[in-house]
Amino acid sequence: MVDSYTLTFDLRPLRELNEDVLNQILKMLPEIAALKSLSLTCRRLREMVLPLLFGHFHYPAFSPDSWTPSEPDNFLPIAIRQYVRSFIVSDFCLDFPDEHNPYMPLTWTDNALLCGIFPGASFAARLRQLPNLHTLTMSKHNYTRHGLPWDTVRAILSVQHLRELTIDSFCLCPILRPGDNLTLDLVGPLTSFHLRRNHYQQPGSYPSEMAALTTVLGKLCNTLETLVLMSEPVSLPDIARLRWPHLRKLVFYGTPFTPAMPITSFCAGMPSLRCLSMKLNPAQHAVPQPLWPPGLTGPPLPHLERLVISYPVAQDDVYDHLPPTLRSLSLRCWPHVDEQL
């Protein structure tokens, strides 16, 4: 039996277990305290437990000092950095737009739309100190319109061993600072990119966000396998002109694109696409548009296995062009609404 403080059974049978089996058992332990207790028993168990204890690390950020080298070092302890594979950074910056106090003094930034607690160079340097980092999630603790400056975005993308990036509730470069140049010289081979937020944003609210996202996607399109985007800052014509040789999953959330573009146009450069999810929520009196307008000719998506359409149109010709590989077709509104009668 394993409790929070001690081990009360013979460890010899555990030492004789196959490493894969033992690893599965360790993953099933419900409490962190149990893993901590096991890590104190022997070297073998300690080496197996440490990646489970520190593999997913949540880090609250309150100021730029979190990333600045100092003595003593206020970043993660050096001994555990090698075990971090998923790094979730929560932004607790107080320099956000406040409609009730528009003259609120700013501490870390010169513009409330831009978060100032992730200075590009020092933040990227800290990420490089996590040698096995695979997934980075940038999240925000509130729903205010607050974004990452271009310097920060460019620095994150330069981390070569990073494979998955999620930007949650942030705007992506809502404004440009003087001297910002939307170019990317060196980016890591990301396979997954998510840009999502929980608050509504009028399409075209931040032209620089659309330009920045277009620049980012232009560099990542050759390696991405999963792409999840809010629709408002997306330029479908730019999506359509790019080649996406490895993209298998494409998800759009938000408001419908204006003007609408047929599926055969914006998916033309995605030969490996397996999942397409169009979770678009039209305005109250808007008329949903078909993905495949009547009379349009074009090649079907040859390998599509899952298709999600919110607010489907009965006259949509997409149903006449579904490939034989399709396994799942979902037709329901988004956000999903349940009504009890």
TrEMBL record:
Signal sequence, start to end: none
Domain F-box: 16-49
Pfam families: F-box
Species of origin: Fomitopsis schrenkii (Brown rot fungus)
SUPFAM superfamilies: RNI-like (SSF52047)
The protein's name in its UniProt record: F-box domain-containing protein
InterPro entries per UniProt: F-box_dom, LRR_dom_sf
